[in-house]
Design brief:
With about 325 residues, the chain is of the alpha/beta class. It is built from 13 helices and 13 strands. It has a single domain, classed as Rossmann fold (3-Layer(aba) Sandwich).
Length: about 325
């Protein structure tokens, strides 16, 4: 892939915050496999230490020589200042991304997602990193009508959405005030291997695959006509790398949708998963109430990312589902 070929030409030093998480671990893997030096900042707030150690054990030993693990917290500014020294690129993924949790406890979500974000951003500016790329979310669109374009924000519906919109505002202001090139990526329903499977707040795709493997009912919030733009994780890796490497100054201080650009209802998603798994004709679908703070429709315009970053999704929903199903079958068979 062109973005990976470009990466291999010029090895750099990268900081990945939240490196033990779903997206963070995929970024770490892609960077190490393409000859980059990577610092991973993690705090194992949500556990995952065993899973992360298992993941690292599967990487080639010669690649791990370029990896440094730092256990620390983005809420500690001294830690942020230390880990951003002599770093070329920061890929900031660390966050609490749970909408129900943000409604239940907005203080801790603000502490991690806003204060922690500001710490790592300020430290990056102090240490003059070349690019600061950070994860935002499609939930900043709130009740705006789709298709969701970057300049059309609706009313925010959860403290989590507020925290991520605040990140975007800080990102824009830090570029204007301090000159640090910031780029925000609004992720739309990312999925793929190594995503959390079994918690109450796991994403719908691994939850349903897991339920079908165990021949259990699939739970669906609402009437099933909610629409989402499901984005396979490899597309997100591409967007992060292209954002970090871009020389287009029009990208700095901006935010970009990262998605597949395709609308899918939850009922359609369920049917697709059943089709690809096979033998699930008798699967039951149980409807329950909508979640507070949820959004009815999310569907991205990805024109801005295409035009400015050169982002082009390589994996469709169908491609990603097939890969994810096979990975879960292999690694979590009917557990």
């Amino acid at each position: 892939m062109p973005h990976l070929q470009e990466l291999r030409k010029t090895p750099k030093t990268w900081l990945v915050t939240g490196a033990s998480g779903f997206i963070g671990s995929h970024l770490l893997e892609a960077l190490l496999k393409n000859h980059q030096k990577v610092i991973g900042l993690v705090n194992f707030f949500a556990g995952r230490r065993d899973q992360f150690d298992d993941f690292l054990s599967q990487l080639p030993k010669e690649k791990l020589k370029n990896f440094s693990l730092v256990i620390g917290d983005i809420r500690d500014y001294k830690t942020c200042l230390e880990v951003t020294k002599n770093v070329d690129f920061v890929l900031h993924q660390a966050a609490l991304g749970n909408i129900p949790q943000s409604i239940k406890d907005p203080l801790i979500v603000n502490d991690v997602n806003v204060t922690g974000f500001l710490n790592i951003l300020r430290a990056s500016a102090e240490n003059k990193v070349s690019r600061f790329v950070y994860a935002s979310t499609s939930y900043v669109y709130g009740d705006a009508q789709d298709p969701n374009a970057e300049d059309k924000i609706g009313n925010l519906l959860s403290p989590y959405a507020v925290s991520k919109r605040t990140n975007e505002l800080y990102g824009q202001v830090f570029y204007r005030c301090y000159g640090i090139p910031t780029l925000g990526l609004r992720y739309f329903n990312v999925f793929g291997p190594r995503q959390e499977l079994t918690s109450l707040h796991a994403s719908v795709i691994p939850l349903w695959i897991h339920a079908l493997l165990k021949q259990e009912p699939c739970l669906i919030n609402g009437d099933g006509l909610h629409t989402r733009d499901f984005c396979y994780v490899d597309n997100v890796i591409q967007a992060n790398i292209k954002a970090a490497l871009t020389q287009n100054s029009q990208a700095f201080g901006e935010v970009f949708n990262v998605a597949s650009g395709k609308r899918t209802t939850l009922l359609e998603l369920h049917a697709l998963i059943k089709t690809f798994m096979g033998g699930c004709e008798g699967s039951k679908l149980i409807h329950r109430d909508d979640r507070p703070g949820d959004i009815k429709h999310l569907f991205a315009s990805i024109d801005k990312a295409k035009d400015i970053l050169g982002y082009h999704p390589t994996h469709s929903l169908e491609d990603g589902l097939k890969i994810t199903i096979e990975w879960i079958k292999k690694n979590h068979p009917k557990t």
